Amino acid sequence: MLFKQQALLRQKLFVLGSLAIGSLLYLVARVGSLDRLQPLCPIDGRFGPRSQDEIPLRALQFKRGLLHEFRKGNATKEQIRLHNLVQQLPKAIIIGVRKGGTRALLEMLNLHPAVVKASQEIHFFDNDENYAKGIEWYRKKMPFSYPHQITIEKSPAYFITEEVPERIYKMNSSIKLLIIVREPTTRAISDYTQVLEGKERKNKTYYKFEKLAIDPNTCEVNTKYKAVRTSIYTKHLERWLKYFPVEQFHIVDGDRLITEPLPELQLVEKFLNLPPRISQYNLYFNATRGFYCLRFNIVFNKCLAGSKGRIHPEVDTSVITKLRKFFHPFNQKFYQITGRTFNWP
Ligand code: A3P
């Protein structure tokens, strides 16, 4: 009898204890996110006339709460009406470069309360079939947001696809364009590593990087190899500059985004005319991953998927030297055009 009573008491204590811990965690999470939100100021009217006072605070704070559900397309008609939610065309696009850190950039910008990301790569402007579906189709692919927020999408194929600059220009000639770059040879090897992994998954064999990057007949850099061509940043940028002035682009240092993300993100906030809201609190280094991960609040953290940050195969140093020498003049031109200089060899 006594034993039964003790067990009952233990059970009750356990339930009460769990409830207390749960409530405490909830309160701490709320305070954490409230703290982040307070100074959100109107964004000089650029991204919509709605004042901050009208925004339901709770929904805005919880990037993993109510708004998160809306983004996943779960909003009911009632919720859409109640919160005045809209699906907006992007005000900024991360147009590339593939393997530059485009996913990390998008996810990190999404930490900002005034930014809403389109989670998937939409491939509207580079895919003829999608483009033929029209701009309304594209808009409907966007997440729900409050009118004062800005939507950002990323599709790295945009940077290298011939037709894309004109198509984006036709949609919005004043759109802001983000390009994240890495040291070109490293980026090319990263590009190769991704393709290699895909082949391996299908149990297929693949060439070594050296064989693809260097033309065996001339022993020169193989400019027909896509991973090499993509890294000639200036060639692609020049096509874009036929439509957009250079001021409409912001270049992000993808190598620095890996080692020291905050200053890079602060430059992007400035470029997008957003109040500075991403802080060191939102980014923490995860030694196991070897990368910075994201902290939305004390409860919700996330790292990028394992497909980001692959181990690169070892590449012959003479090939690396040859590639670096090849990219050098293109890099110089890229610095000259963009006004952003890197310490690339
Ligand atoms: P590697 O896999 O070569 O290391 P993209 O998203 O454009 O495909 O770019 C992928 C690259 O993002 C990765 O290349 C990785 O180095 C880089 N990256 C930058 N910040 C990262 C982060 N916080 N977590 C994981 N990868 C990150």
Low-confidence stretches: 25-62
Radius of gyration: 24 Å
What is the succession of H and E elements?
HHHHEEHEHHEEHEHHHHEHHEEEH
Q: What is the CATH H-level superfamily?
A: P-loop containing nucleotide triphosphate hydrolases
Major beta-sheet overview: 5 strands, parallel
The whole-number mean of residue pLDDT values reads 85
Q: Any idea how many domains?
A: 1
How far is the first residue's CA from the last residue's CA?
Answer: 79 Å
Quickly name the level 1 CATH class: Alpha Beta
Tell me, what's the shape?
globular
Question: What is the share of helical residues?
Answer: 40-55%
CATH names the topology as: Rossmann fold
* SSE-based structural type: alpha/beta
Small ligands present: adenosine-3'-5'-diphosphate
Number of distinct helices = 15
Can you tell me about this structure?
It is a single chain. The chain is of the alpha/beta class. It has one domain: 3-Layer(aba) Sandwich (Rossmann fold). It has helices at residues 2-37, 57-61, 66-74, 77-82, 102-109, 128-131, 135-140, 164-171, 184-201, 209-213, 226-230, 233-240, 254-259, 261-271, 317-338, and strands spanning 86-87, 92-96, 115-117, 144-145, 150-154, 176-181, 249-253, 283-286, 291-295, 301-302. The strands form 3 sheets. A 5-stranded parallel beta sheet has the order 3-5-2-6-7. A 3-stranded antiparallel beta sheet has the order 8-9-10, with no helix packed on it. Helix 12 (233-240) runs parallel beside helix 15. Adenosine-3'-5'-diphosphate is lined by residues 98-104, 156, 190, 257-258, 291-292, 304, 308-310.
